[in-house]
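In response to reviewer comment 3 from the previous cycle, which asked for concrete evidence that the modeling workflow produces usable outputs, we include below a single protein chain processed end to end. The sequence was submitted unchanged, and the resulting structure tokens are shown without manual editing.
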Amino acid sequence: MQGNIHSIETFGSVDGPGIRFVIFLQGCPMRCAYCHNPDTWNTKENILMDSDELILRFLRNASFYRSGGITVSGGEPLLQMDFLIDLFSKAHNHNIHTCIDTSGVCFDSTSQEFMTKLEKLLPLTDLVMLDIKHINNKKHQALTDNPNTNILAFATYLSDHAVDLYIRHVIVPGLTDDPDDLFRLGEFIGKLKTLKALDILPYHNMGTIKYQALNIPYRLRDTPPMDKEKAILLKKYVLQGIKSARENNPS
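The workflow returned the following structure tokens.
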């Protein structure tokens, strides 16, 4: 089966445990103000690649990835569920660790078709890296042009179905750095039973040049990068929320 591929990274060090073979898929319904890959938004065909070819490319350097595996990112991987099922099935046949890096925006518990495919995909998925853009739904819509209700429901669904989770959250000055929102984010993820890691990432503007090349207005052109030390300090509010959730909901 072929997937619509944007690009491949052969040395992914921040895309799951170990060194990863990272496949970026083309297409994304999100329009995050700080997205640094606007070239992945378009769902039109970019590069079609066969799952067998991708597995073969991994296996050629399998010793290099022995502590890692394959991560599929984007764009939004869940737009290509059939391809993910095919690819991850073949990966598991070779005992390759599999990871999805997703926004969760495609999750739709009311769609029988989507849920049937998800039920096939999750047993083949060793880890989900989930980006939660904002815990406040109104602010999330302003930031991404999408609500967060299905994203939070997806996180809960993964937790309830014993899927390991890494949570990522980008700290953007003036947008996602409110201590109360960060505490509420912590309260939410503190209830996730399969939470394995939390990454608080400082906003950067290194993708600005891509917007210029694509002639797309960059909404955060006047927003400075987040100071890394301040981001570390702000992480404490998320950790306090996690602690509060676990103290109030002991397992």
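The helical segments are 51-59, 81-93, 112-121, 137-144, 149-160, 179-189, 208-214, 228-248. We consider this sufficient to address the reviewer's concern, and the full set will be provided in the supplementary archive.
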